[in-house]
Amino acid sequence: MPLPIFFFGNLLFGLGGTQAVSLPMFTALRRFSIWMTMIGEQFILKERLPLITQASVYLMSIGALIASGYDLTFNWFGYTFLTVNNLCTAAQGIVMKKKLVNKDFNQNGLLFYNSFIALVPLIVIVLLTDDLHKVWNYDGYTDLGFIFTFLLSCLMGFLLNYSTMLCTNYNSALTTAVVGACKNLFVTYFGMFIGGDYVFSLVNFIGLNISALASLVYTWVTFTRRSSSAKKSTTRK
Fold first, then answer.
1. Is 221 within a domain?
2. Transmembrane among the record's keywords (predicted)?
3. What is this structure's pTM?
């Protein structure tokens, strides 16, 4: 039951936080979820991580901390929402990994029940707002462009959730969190020029770069070690 709650919280607070901060700061602040995931893995899943892996995660967090300290567009609402978003992300990844390891569900069953149960609070929110009225009165349902983009959005949403589940199953909650941060590298830099809500500060820019480079270091270290382990096991055979 907690997994759909964390999934819903991740969605709700993530969208709310995105509206209040610039895209570069959003991607930087989201890296705190990686540190939270690492702590959760160590205490809840009893994972023992190499020192270089821990160092790269702390470096990501330090970079994000430097960037946030010199964020000229600081917004309490956005930062609060993103903090809760990070907690939900970390909790979701850890609970997901725990259920997959314990064989409570397979990845397909877990994805189905997680999405199905999360529908309940989403329906409540729709009924309490005017979203249902907007959907009912929307006049673009016959537009081919809308139909194509809507179906594509549904497909990409499914692929994102399924890929997240698959990555967590075969790797770890921490690796999934880092991969999620790496995919936002383009958002970090393009977001400085697109949207018009990023205010340049040298220290802030340095912090963003430290955090981004540290995420690449983690990825390189993790998959280099995995490749070396695979070669050793092949040699033994």
1. yes
2. yes
3. 0.80
Q: Please list, in sequence order, all residues whose beta carbon lies within 8 angstroms of the beta carbon of residue 168, skipping any fewer than 6 positions away.
A: 93, 96, 97, 100, 176
Q: How many domains does the chain have?
A: 1
- pLDDT one-digit tens code per residue, 138-186: 888 889 999 999 999 999 989 988 998 888 888 888 888 887 777 777 7
pLDDT 10s digits, 69-95: 777 677 788 889 999 999 999 999 999
* Close Cβ partners of 211 (under 8 Å, ≥ 6 residues apart): 28, 31, 59, 60, 61, 62, 63, 64, 67
96 lies in which domain range? Answer: 2-125+142-232
Per-residue confidence band for 27, with pLDDT thresholds at 50, 70 and 90: confident
Q: Contact at 8 Å (CB) between 184 and 221?
A: no
Outline where DSSP puts E strands in 24-137: none
Q: Is residue 90 a part of any domain in this protein?
A: yes
